[in-house]
Amino acid sequence: MELIIAIFIGLMFSCGVYLILRRSIVKVILGIFVLSNAANLIIFLAGGITKSEVAFIPDGEQTLDPTLINDPVAQVLVIKSIVIGLGIAAYILALKYRYFEVTGTHDLDSLKNTDQR
Amino acid sequence: MILLAHILLPFTYILLALLIKKASIKSRLAVLFATFNLLWALALLPIVQIKDIIVVQVGGWAAPYGISLVADRFSVFMLIMTAIIFFLVTIYATQSVDKARRKSGHFFFTFGILMGVNGSFIAGDVFNLYVWYEVMLMSSFILMSLGGERAQMEGSIKYLILNLISALFFVSGVGLLYGNLGTLNMADLSAIISEKSDMLTHLNPALILMVVSFAIKGALVPFFFWLPASYHTPPPAVSALLAGLLTKVGIYSLIRFYTLFLYHDAPFWNQLILWMGVLSMVIGVFAASSQFDFRKILSFHIISQVGYVVIGLGFYTVSGIAAAMFFLAHNMLSKTNAFLVAGWVKRQKGTLNLKTLGEVYKESPIWGVLFFISAFSLAGLPPLSGFIGKYLIIKAGIEANYIVVALIALFVGLFTLFSMVKIWLEVFWKDVPKDRVVKIPQKKRKSQYMLTSSLIMAILIVVMGLWAQPIVTYCEQAAVDLLNPELYIDKVLNFSR
């Protein structure tokens, strides 16, 4: 299972890289989304994937056998980074919309006015 | 709980700013909170001198499980510098930034940056560091595009995309590191790595991803392209703040990582870091000398100056790291002040193109002198702070037997002087070109607060050059702490109330 997800992450990274190399700004933004999800999956995979119980200590007990549960920290981290990714996605789409209103173009090549010559 | 104030103060302002509508009250409140932040940072100084390292375990969970906030001498130094820069730029911004921007949340987001920067300086946990990075970046994205001018939009799209890629590198690195070692607390990581010396090459993929991310944030060669493409587009007060704080956070994290993790595999990392620094110095300064825009020249100089700090780290001796810290502080002051002067010139003349400017010195000698101080401090002329900074770096390089690197640093100083003299001559000295028609704003606007903040900063630059000894001593103590990660590990992991 881990191997399949690892290969899948690799595929997502290559799709993301392909997209951010495109000329259209929208596709670049989509590429960023794909890449950020690929990175989230890496964290998810870092916790290990096993069939297991949820990481709650049952009522009336003090400890929990660690072999029974999956690592909860990785899941917490991945939720946090998904939330951050969501915020960024909202902002970047708003920025794109505004950019399109100001300039009327989707083309990254028209973005060279502020570059160093 | 003492460290939490650095996060809670900006957060309180952010909450208050949501409730207030009037721009003038927002500005006054911002200055007030910036003062609090400065006082609080200064209050940490005597405490860190007694305790060596201030540790706070948030929520009361012990070190590897809870979130640790750690401040050693280096962090406190950076917190103080950040607080000074932020305080002065806030005073400047109350007059420099237009009312519409102040009303729509300029200070709201600058405090977001402050929260993120303070948080990254005291984060004791790699994932926590990433979260503070995101707080800082989100605020800077919005500040960059606030106002919605065309150039701003272009600049912020480039800034946004390249910085997001750096964040992705960082998250991937965090994931790989966690998968390998099962912990993200920096002290714990450092302890585990020092025990398992056979794992070093095994960890390098994760660490490389993180170092690339810091290098993008810190604008090192070959990852600097976002910086000169975007820093000259937002209002001057914003670019001064970003230039003063953001790249320095990347470099801070690099120094922290190097002294905690990377030094275990020194043969691999040392040369890499050193030559990255050398290339940044050289390429930054050469690119700067071909520019004809005030702020663009300064932006390229950020890259060059960051290189100096990184070679100081690359020497990896007490004097090298102390010099790097001193240089970092000097650069924050001088660079921000140069941007502040650029902001004033833009306000008076409506342009920053060197070809159309001229005779500014005749118009306002005081701003000329202020620019003179900061520019020649950047170029490293005595008795200003830049002289001490460069002297310490080059001395440390010769002592550590990196003669070639030290000579390159000297040589780069010459070209820095060249660009600074170029700005001085073109903007302040030469006659206004007859054939260029410039639209000068109708009425001269008041600028007393802008002048005050720039003046204080210039005085600090001179003071830092003349009374460098106590600061250098402090930096050396901090460098000794950094070179003994056992102390850091011990204080964080064996923390007791």
From TrEMBL, chain A:
Query: Where in or outside the cell is it found?
Result: Cell membrane
Q: What is its main location?
A: membrane
Single GO cellular component term = plasma membrane
Task: Locate the transmembrane regions by residue number.
Answer: 6-21, 28-49, 73-94
Its topology with respect to the membrane? Multi-pass membrane protein
Question: Record's InterPro entries?
Answer: CPA3_antiporter_subunitC (IPR050601), NUOK/Mnh_C1-like (IPR039428)
Query: Which keywords annotate this record?
Result: Cell membrane, Membrane, Transmembrane, Transmembrane helix
Is RNA-binding a UniProt keyword of this protein? no
Entry-linked Pfam families: Oxidored_q2
Q: Which domain of life is it from?
A: Bacteria
Family stated for the protein in its record:
Belongs to the CPA3 antiporters (TC 2.A.63) subunit C family.
- In Swiss-Prot or TrEMBL terms, this protein is called Multicomponent Na+:H+ antiporter subunit C
TrEMBL record, chain B:
Residue spans crossing the bilayer: 6-23, 30-48, 74-93, 105-123, 129-147, 159-179, 206-227, 239-262, 268-288, 300-318, 324-345, 366-388, 400-428, 449-468
Coiled-coil intervals: none
Localization per Swiss-Prot or TrEMBL: Cell membrane; Membrane
Membrane: is it a keyword of this entry? yes
> PANTHER family given for it?
NA(+)_H(+) ANTIPORTER SUBUNIT D1, NADH DEHYDROGENASE
Q: Which family does it belong to?
A: Belongs to the CPA3 antiporters (TC 2.A.63) subunit D family.
The identity of this protein, by name, is Multicomponent Na+:H+ antiporter subunit D
Q: Which organism is it from?
A: Alkalitalea saponilacus
